[in-house]
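Tip: read the tokens left to right.
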């Protein structure tokens, strides 16, 4: 396993509010601004951070951030997003960029992993195959079932925690992800401090 060459590009954003099912619109807007995004296998768009739920959607606040995982060599391309205005379809203004390297935590969590099946037992079997393909020696904990509406398509999956990862394995799975639809925020792993709260 090689050390990860992917990083997270973090953008400040400003706007009013966006719909709860924003993932598809966000990706289409980013792909229009970044033509390489569709064909970049290591690229993924995290669920946005710092959104506040409200009656008719999600409020974009001062701490809201857009995170794009992509190879480090895409830095110059990503920097060009600064100052852009995109439609999600609600308008968002893209602010300053910062770069976060991936951290080799032994415990990782993904909010939603989608493999194309809805049954939990089938999902576990799919994830076990994915873990084997990535040559990971770790344990996993399947969490809550979740759904994501992407246009007319309803994606079903589960949250997932991996623990007992070596440093190299942790970076590898963060770079490669698990499952489908990483451009919609699925199968992207972030460090988690502990497994203690899982299942509560």
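Filled-in amino acids:
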């Amino acid at each position: 396993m090689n050390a990860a060459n992917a990083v997270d590009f973090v953008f400040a954003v400003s706007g009013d509010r966006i719909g709860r099912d924003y993932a598809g619109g966000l990706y289409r807007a980013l792909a229009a601004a970044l033509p390489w995004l569709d064909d970049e296998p290591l690229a993924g768009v995290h669920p946005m951070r710092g959104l506040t739920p409200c009656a008719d959607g999600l409020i974009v606040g001062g701490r809201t951030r857009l995170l794009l995982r992509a190879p480090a060599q895409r830095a110059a391309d990503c920097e060009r997003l600064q100052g852009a205005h995109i439609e999600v379809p609600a308008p968002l203004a893209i602010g300053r960029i910062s770069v976060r390297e991936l951290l080799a935590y032994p415990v990782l969590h993904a909010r939603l992993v989608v493999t194309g099946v809805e049954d939990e037992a089938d999902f576990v079997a799919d994830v076990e195959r994915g873990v084997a393909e990535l040559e990971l020696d770790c344990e996993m904990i399947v969490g809550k079932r979740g759904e994501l509406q992407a246009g007319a398509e309803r994606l079903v999956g589960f949250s997932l925690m991996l623990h007992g990862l070596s440093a190299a394995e942790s970076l590898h799975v963060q770079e490669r992800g698990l499952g489908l639809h990483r451009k919609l925020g699925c199968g992207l792993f972030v460090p988690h401090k502990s497994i203690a709260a899982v299942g509560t």
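The two ends are 34 Å apart (CA to CA). The first strand starts at residue 6 and ends at 15.
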